[in-house]
Specification:
single chain, alpha/beta, Rossmann fold, 11 strands, about 65% helix
Length: about 675
């Protein structure tokens, strides 16, 4: 059976019957990359929640367009963070296989930290009153959520619970992958938990051929795997109901379009002869086209060899030009070295001149500094006296703050008594209803936290009082320090007057040194004029070298432009060759399709468009891929959601046939795929 399509049809049929007024919410846990149940919930008019730790861009666009609440987290038994194991492309070319279980068959060694919520925390955050449907597809971790249903209030139990079982390449017979003993036991734990919660009428949908929807009652069942699952079962969904059931014949009508039977082996002889004749004609036409393509290929090879010979000649000429250019660069470097030596001599001469001038300025600055120190000493004396008065003022303010702190302490104690009274009042309201019981527990924890905070604030107030007393003692010690500084300032004043006398004697010595530095300056100016004349000579030689370098660079650019032209011609021939090979493979695929899929010629244009889209994707032409997939939607009778699934399966198949890797994640996150999905969602909403 086609599992996802059939389950969506069943839910779309029963949900309006279970909750006619749309009073509850529908939760899609594990949205994935296709078969979006949250889209169906929203279209039925239910308030919808999508829970997905690694949403693709298409899911974000869908949730934004359909007003679906998207929660980027996983459901588990932990509130916080969990390690999720990313899906392995080799396990089905699908990023849907990401799982919290490290031994799940479809995961890789790459991991990522994601946000995690319990089901009760999720419902509390959503302020949920009623849950109509809970859908779970979380790759082997379904039991960690379903077994917690027993601890929820009865008002929060969903009317419908759907979860996935099995999976991978194994079946119930082989006991591999999703049917290994660990995951089979987890599936049975889910059924036992649902039975304990009062769920009864249940439906099983399996993807095995020649199977139909199976109905069983959880309350009367002995919960043995052999009595519930098919022997050849692969993977599927179980839908469990509370206080609701549907007749067997009514369910059969709903599921009939999604049954898959084994292909019959008898075909009429006339159809076989007709297909054989048409296939023979197509083979002859393909052989003729192949012969023409080979002749063109030989011509392209000859042109390619000629182009490669010319390319080698251009490369040898370019090598010679580069050698000449390197010689000129060596000569330029020698000239620059000489120029740098002369510039260094010039800078050293200027530095000596500046040093003489700086000594004169420093002497004057020292004289001014001595005078400023005298004034600053007098200013410090005045400031010390003002600080003494301000310290006394601060002491008085500290005493007033001590009184105000005692008032605040009394207010905190009164607030503490008020909080205790409020706590007693809330405890009296604890037994009103089961619904208020859960919320009052959370409020009780909050009130206790506030009580602890009030006690902590009371302790802080006591510490502040002690701190203020310490500050008062420190202020007394600071007054003694200020008096010591005052005496030290007076001693500095006497030493500054002695230094002023010494600075007058040093002033006369500086005047003599200044006259010597002026004589040295005149000698330096003469040397500077000689170095400038030599600098002009080197600049002229440098200009001559630069002109020769420009000429060589122009010749090199001509050779490079010729080389680019040859490379463009080579790429053009290569693109023509690739196009011919693509046409050849397309005709070969068309021939194989005609022989293997007899009687379904009407699907040939659709299949060819999907294959053309895959070729465009492999060559990097994503716009052509988008156009081909859009055109294929116009000529296929299947639904748009099934078309998207068929595209991904076909791309995976074509890549496997060619031995090429296929990354579903990069494809579904490309801009062209997003535009294609946006167009699909717009049509679906209308």
């Amino acid at each position: 059976m086609r599992v996802e399509a059939c389950c969506q049809r069943i839910l779309s049929y029963v949900l309006p019957l279970v909750d006619e007024k749309r009073e509850g919410i529908c939760i899609d846990v594990g949205v994935g990359t296709f078969a979006f149940y949250c889209e169906m919930f929203s279209m039925l008019g239910f308030k919808t929640i999508a829970v997905e730790p690694l949403p693709v861009e298409g899911v974000r666009v869908l949730c934004q367009y359909d007003s679906i609440t998207l929660i980027e987290a996983c459901l588990s038994d932990v509130n916080g963070t969990k390690t999720i194991h990313l899906g392995n492309a080799a396990a089905g070319c699908d990023s849907n296989y990401a799982s919290l279980e490290s031994d799940w068959f479809g995961v890789s060694t790459e991991t990522r930290k994601v946000q995690s919520l319990t089901l009760s925390k999720l419902l509390l955050n959503l302020n949920a009153r009623k849950v109509t449907c809970l859908k779970l597809d979380i790759e082997g971790a379904e039991s960690t959520v379903i077994t917690k249903l027993e601890g929820l209030p009865k008002a929060w139990l969903p009317n419908i619970v759907m979860f996935e079982y099995g999976g991978g390449a194994g079946t119930k017979k082989t006991s591999q992958d999703g049917w290994s003993p660990k995951y089979l036991n987890a599936t049975m734990e889910c059924l036992r938990a649902l039975k304990e919660c009062g769920y009864n009428f249940s439906i099983m949908i399996d993807n095995a051929l020649d199977t139909e929807a199976r109905i069983f009652d959880l309350q009367s069942s002995n919960l043995e795997p052999d009595s519930i699952f098919y022997p050849n079962g692969g993977y599927g969904n179980i839908i469990a109901f509370r206080d609701f059931n549907i007749a067997q014949n009514e369910l059969a009508k709903v599921c009939a379009p999604y049954y898959e039977k084994s292909n019959p082996t008898d075909n009429s002889e006339a159809n076989e002869n007709l297909i054989t004749i048409s296939a023979t004609e197509e083979i002859e036409l393909s052989k003729f086209q192949l012969h023409q393509t080979r002749e063109e290929l030989e011509q392209y090879k000859a042109l390619l060899n000629q182009t490669q010979g010319e390319l080698q000649q251009y490369q040898s000429q370019l090598h010679q030009t580069q050698e000449v250019l390197e010689q000129f660069q060596d000569q330029i470097q020698q000239a620059e070295t000489l120029l740098q030596e002369y510039q260094g001599q010039l800078h050293s001469t200027q530095a000596e001149l500046e040093q003489s001038q700086s000594q004169l300025h420093s002497t004057q600055a020292e004289l001014e500094q001595s005078q400023s120190q005298l004034h600053s000493t007098q200013t410090e004396l005045e400031q010390s006296q003002s600080q003494l008065h301000s310290t006394q003022t601060v002491l008085e303010q500290s005493q007033s703050q001590l009184h105000s702190t005692e008032v605040v302490l009394e207010q905190s104690q009164s607030q503490l008594h008020q909080n205790i009274a409020e706590l007693a009042q809330k405890n009296s309201q604890l037994h009103q209803s089961e619904w208020e019981l859960e919320r009052t527990r959370f409020q009780l924890h909050q009130t206790q936290a506030e009580l602890a905070q009030s006690q902590a604030e009371l302790a802080q107030c006591n510490s502040k009082v002690e701190h203020i007393q310490l500050e008062a003692e420190q202020l007394g010690s600071q007054i003694g320090q200020v008096q010591g500084k005052l005496e030290h300032s007076q001693s500095k004043l006497r030493s500054s007057s002695m230094e002023l006398k010494r600075s007058h004697s040093q002033h006369f010595q500086v005047i003599g040194e200044l006259e010597q530095s002026q004589a040295q300056q005149r000698q330096t100016e003469a040397i500077l004029q000689q170095s400038q004349s030599q600098k002009h000579q080197f600049q002229n030689e440098l200009k001559r070298f630069y002109s020769q370098l420009v000429q060589v660079q122009e010749e090199s650019q001509d050779y490079q432009s010729q080389l680019v032209q040859v490379q463009e011609e080579s790429r053009h021939y290569q693109s023509q060759l690739n196009h011919s090979q693509e046409e050849l493979e397309r005709s070969h695929f068309q021939q194989q399709y005609a022989v293997s899929d007899r009687g379904v010629e009407s699907q040939m244009p659709y299949t060819l468009l999907v294959r053309d889209a895959w070729y465009a994707y492999q060559s990097g032409d994503l716009k052509k891929m988008q156009h081909c997939l859009q055109e294929s939607l116009k000529i296929t009778p299947i639904s748009r959601t099934e078309s998207v699934v068929n595209w991904l399966e076909s791309f995976c198949q074509f890549s496997a046939e060619k031995g090429q890797p296929f990354d579903t994640y990069s494809l579904t996150n490309s801009q062209e795929w997003k535009r294609l999905m946006q167009g699909r969602f717009t049509v679906s909403q209308i």
